[in-house]
Amino acid sequence: MPVPRHPQDLDLHDLRDRLLRAQEAAIATGTVPPVLRPVVRESWERAIRGAIDPDHALPRLELDEDAFREYRASHALAPVMPVIRRLLVDGADDAGLVVAVGDAHGRLLWVEGDAGLRRRAEDMLFVAGADWSEASIGTSAPGTALELDRAVQIRGAEHFNRIVHPWSCTAAPVHDPATGALLGVIDITGTDHAVALHTLSLVSATVAAVEAELRIASLESTVRTTLRRSRMVAVPAARPARTPLTVLGERRPRLGTHELSPRHAEILTLLAWHRGGLGAERLAALVYEGAASPVTLRAEVVRLRRVLEAAGEPPLESRPYRLGREVELDAASVAKLLGQGALRRAAERYAGPVLPSSSAPGIVELREELAARLRESMLSDASPELLAAYVERDECRYDAEVWRALLEILPPRSPRRASVVAHLERIEAALR
To answer: Can you give the C-alpha Rg of the chain in angstroms?
Structure first.
């Protein structure tokens, strides 16, 4: 039996032809020929036992956008991403490489590096949230490194899945330094540079730095816990629940269960948005169109104080005007969710424009700012499903850019494409 040679000793085209023939024989007979390196041969055997289709298997995306973002933010590797970016990602653009970090199950959490290469990798769903475990996709450096719990390099046609043949990758697992538990994997993917000898050393060194950072963080946490237990810690009083202030959409604005007049809703919205308070002249300028005297505002504030008293809320504070305690402004909640990247939840909370009937300068500015932030997030980050729901809103009816964006991200065979094209034609006809 011939001794298997390392793939780097072979001409790349010859290697690919040999591996394709070996794969066809392995699928037909159930036995992988010995021309493969042992690590690859054993991985192919697992793929065949798992009935993975080398022509059609694609990674799964099991979590929706918001659930994935929350999962990733709470993962043990999230705090050490600055270390990984400093050691690997910062140089990946120049080197034409992609850096991926996954969890212990093979789900990719971050995919960063060369922008052009990442766009190409999206064709095979090498994206954040995708399952690249061996059980899902077959042989790959991140999946096989997790399966074997050691560093692995996979070159070109050594991948069991043929869609991955143009790529090469190097990956190594990351462990909890305190318990030894498997936390995830760090991977470099790209052309042949991704399996150079120095690449394996670089990934291994990064893993060592990450585990050292985790060890330091664990020790610091232990010290803080010990110090807290050694002191008498007063338990703070529970904060009272904040009263909801509802101003989004066509509904009558409310503070809790109390309906508000349009003017009172404007004042409360502006004070809830500007939590630090507003002087009388500034608030008057935001509430009234044209020149307005603070005297007019003060008369309205007197009436508003009676409304707050009836609702069981603390009175407004003066100099500057400020709420006696925070309220739960629905517009502010949407802005906060957008800032956190929770786009789906933000869209669900966004019932419509801020006080749509108001012409108060400050409300108009707030309305436009929030609508613009949601729109930009939709254009850049929304899934086809989420963007399809968004375009049905009244404010999107004649927004050609948003409808074109939906057409671009819909799958080629989506039944929605015809109706989107028809709507775009109606927009163009209306604008002629």
So the answer is: 29
Which tokens is 97 given?
Answer: 């490489």
| Amino acid found at 230 | S
Q: Tell me if 277 sits within 8 A of 329, measured CB to CB.
A: no
Peptide bond into 353 cis (omega under 30): no
Q: Convert the pLDDT of each residue in 14-25 to its tens digit.
A: 777 788 888 888
Q: Are residues 174 and 247 in the same domain?
A: no
> Which tens digits make up the pLDDT trace of 341-364?
888 999 999 999 999 999 999 999
Q: Which residue has the tokens 């050393």?
A: 201
Note whether residue 162 is domain-resident: yes
Residues 81, 110 contacting (CB under 8 angstroms): yes
CA–CA separation, 182 vs 110, rounded Å? 17
Q: How many structural domains does the chain have?
A: 3
CA–CA gap between residue 59 and residue 300 (Å, rounded): 60
**234 in a domain, yes or no?**
no
On whether residue 43 sits in a domain, the answer given is no
* Amino acid (one-letter) located at 368: E
- How many other C-beta atoms are found inside a 10 Å radius of the C-beta of residue 410? 17
* DSSP structure string for 222-284: HHHHHHHHTS--PPPPPPPPPPEEE-BSSSPPEETTEE--HHHHHHHHHHHHSTT-B-HHHHH
Half-sphere exposure of 211 (CA within 13 A, CB side): 21
Q: Tokens 């985790």 belong to which residue?
A: 214
Domain CATH for 84: 3.30.450.40
- Running DSSP on this structure, what letter comes out for residue 44? H
Q: Which residue has the tokens 């040999």?
A: 18
CA 205, CA 27: separation in Å to the nearest integer?
Answer: 37
Contacts of 307 (CB under 8 A, 6+ apart): 255, 258, 260, 264
What is the Cα–Cα distance from 262 to 247, expressed in whole angstroms? Answer: 10
- Answer whether 0.85 is exceeded by the pTM: no
